[in-house]
Amino acid sequence: MWYPGHINKAKNAIKKNLKIVNSIIEIVDARAPYSSRAYEFEKLFQGKDKIIILNKADICDLEKTKKWEELYKKRGYKVIKTSLKDVNARNFLIKNVAPLIPVKFNEKTAIIVGAPNVGKSTFINSIKGKKSTNTGNMPGITRGIQWVSAGNNIRILDTPGILFPELYNKSITSKLILIGSLKAEDDEADEAVFYAYEYLKNNYPKLIKKIVDNDLHKGAYEFILEFAKKRNFIKKGGIGDYERGKMTFLKELIDGKYGKITYDDIEEFEEIKI
């Protein structure tokens, strides 16, 4: 599991700084509203006012997302659904998020958290108005903890993206790979792609038909071979290039190229304390 030492240091720094902020702003990927909450949130944020931003609403299944919104609100969270790439970050923070942060000492302060690639770094950089930290689809790029001023007596404490030190469920590992929060090793990439195929086949069969316009595939491996041939990734003998097909399919899933998908079904998790 990718979990370098600086992440442990950052997590300890978060613990130390919690007492000086009024709220937690947690950005999650709306395609995985539980799985992308990859913080040890119950231990870290106990007793704090919490705001969840369900980001990437433009590429999630809105019907499923509504159920997650309702569940989180029922559990006492303040919830906002949005697509951060389509809004002005500073205006969004001032108009939509800041009213949910309590005032203390004539100031609104919050710590902002989120797993890698959920949109947190892009959001913070947009508030700053300059690209002062690296962003992209590589997990764990932001490494420091820093205050960001948004004006109007609003200050946000930025943090790195932190994952669980151990992921207890293979399906959660696959989901984190499929949304770009976790960098996959070779065998994990295979597992994630196979998981995606089975999930799409069972939940979004029309998307499978749209991606590869035939029913020749009997499983994930055959599907990827057909996908590769459609993209003209051909090996000798006219066989689809499985490796190129797999990695292209995975990248396009991460980028949300195939439409509105949500990988977390609320029935899996509603009994869990979240």
Topology diagram in text:
Elements: H1 5-17, E1 23-29, H2 41-44, E2 49-55, H3 62-74, E3 78-81, H4 89-97, E4 108-113, H5 120-128, E5 146-151, E6 154-158, H6 170-178, H7 186-203, H8 205-211, H9 220-230, H10 242-254, H11 266-269
Notable features of this structure?
Conserved Hypothetical Protein Ylqf, Chain: A, domain 2, alpha/beta, single chain, 274 residues, Rossmann fold
The counted number of beta strands is 6
Number of helices: 11
CATH superfamily of the largest domain: P-loop containing nucleotide triphosphate hydrolases
The CATH architecture of the largest domain would be 3-Layer(aba) Sandwich
**Count of all domains:** 2
Outline the low-pLDDT stretches. Answer: 131-143
Largest sheet composition: 6 strands, mixed
The run of helices and strands is HEHEHEHEHEEHHHHHH
Strand order of the largest sheet: 3-2-1-4-6-5
Backbone CA Rg: 20 Å
Remind me, CATH topology of the largest domain?
A: Rossmann fold
Note the beta-strand portion: 5-15%
N-to-C span: 23 Å
Mean pLDDT, all residues:
86
CATH class of the largest domain: Alpha Beta
- Portion in helices: 40-55%
Summed up:
Helix 7 (186-203) packs across helix 8 (205-211) and helix 9 (220-230) crosses helix 10. The chain folds into two domains: 5-165, Rossmann fold; 170-254, Conserved Hypothetical Protein Ylqf, Chain: A, domain 2, CATH 1.10.1580.
